[in-house]
Design brief:
The chain has 500 residues and is an alpha+beta fold. Helix content is 34%, strand content 19%. It is built from eight helices and 21 strands. A hairpin with a 5-residue loop joins strand 15 (421-424) and strand 16. The longest helix is centred in the middle third of the chain and has 109 residues, at 153-261. The radius of gyration is 56 Å and the shape is elongated. It starts with 16 loop residues before the first helix and ends with a strand.
Length: 500
Amino acid sequence: MASSGGAPSVPPPPPSCSLKDELVCPICLSLYADPVSFGCEHYFCRRCITEHWSRQQQEASGPGGSGGWRDCPECRRRFAQPCLAPSLKLANIVERYAAFPLDAILGGARRPAGLACAKEHAKVKLFCLADRAVVCFFCDQPARHEQHPVTSLDDAFDELQRELKEQLQALQESERGHAEALALLKRQLAETKSSAKSLRATIGEAFERLHRLLRERQKAMLEELEADTARTLTDIEQKIQRYSQQLRKVQEGSQILQERLAEADKHAFLEGIGSLSERLKGKIHETNLTYEDFPTSKYMGPLQYTIWKSLFQDIHPVPAALTLDPLTAHQRLILSDDCTIVAYGNLHPQPLQDSPKRFDVEVSVLGSEAFGSGVHYWEVVVSEKTQWMIGLAHEVVTRKGSIQIQPSRGFYCIVMHDGNQYSACTEPWTRLNVKSKLEKVGVFLDFDKGLLIFYNADDMSWLYTFRERFPGKLCSYFSPGQSHANGKNVQPLRINTVRI
């Protein structure tokens, strides 16, 4: 806008003047030439500060001089024999700034938006780390970046290349992780579908077998009922026929006697007495009927329980009657005479002969039977205990010293610990979701499929599954845990024997 006298208004100094002030030597008021510093934060041309100190030295040689001291023309701090340190970064900035005439930089027009920067501006370009942008001192506004950290394009290129390579490496690692996770999920999807299909067939076969057994048992029971009914009816009908014949004869005898008694003539009555016995012969029969109840009781009562018990011989597997191997039992363990119960003894260790089979540190015992194939199931009563461990162990596991009970050592077990906590002895332990205190644990082994499954035997709810490739025969494993003087955990472990 023009002034009242018609003279044009003077534009404000461009923002780049503040940058110029930073690049001008305070002694010669020109751009730095070989800038140096010497202990304070001010910079000077090497030649300017050297000449300044030379003049000071000449003045110091006169009366009242300051001797060997040197001062800073800006802050007036005094230094004894200061060492001049060059500033290469400041020299580079001055060199790039000086690539264009100072008046052109200070008063030149800015680049219109959308136009590319001139090729000859390359020497005055820096990179702003704060804004992450290239700054041209001619086309842009340097004052906007005055308080920002800046660096050369070469340094910025190397730094950003390194940074982007790190980001690329992180993205590639993430890509590999996601690809592996996706492949795993797809494999799990296929395995789940395949397992579900196989399980549907297994469940169908199990129930079909039960249905078939029930149908066969129903047929046999109905046939037995029909046979009992036919036999009873035949017997009753034969008795009816026999007693009907006897009744007619008895009635005939009764009529004969009634006729004889009706005879009024004494002579005629007495003459007929002689033949009366012959006429009554075979007419008198005693009633000696023996009646047998129809066997309804055998088809009534707890019929379903009766049927269930009869099915046990056809159901597989049923709870096995396992026994414990005394030769493997720790010296503090006490076994029942039938080797189905094990408890921890608080007394001194039993005087048992040591052998490679016997556990000497872990209070454990193995079952006497080794499983190398097939399916098996047994139950262990664990009620009222606060500590125990049960499962399976390889037949050849080490029995000496402190043992880590985990699959890599040949043990596949679940444990009760801390009074009311349950875990699978994996690496690390896996906490089990048990809603109520276990009273009886079921153990199912399908050796050929590599499956070991634990159940709450009261309702057959699932507890945990080990999926392994068993390298050799397995024995059942039992540890009742140590009992305490306060009476805790003194109850034994007992193999549950189902008797039908």
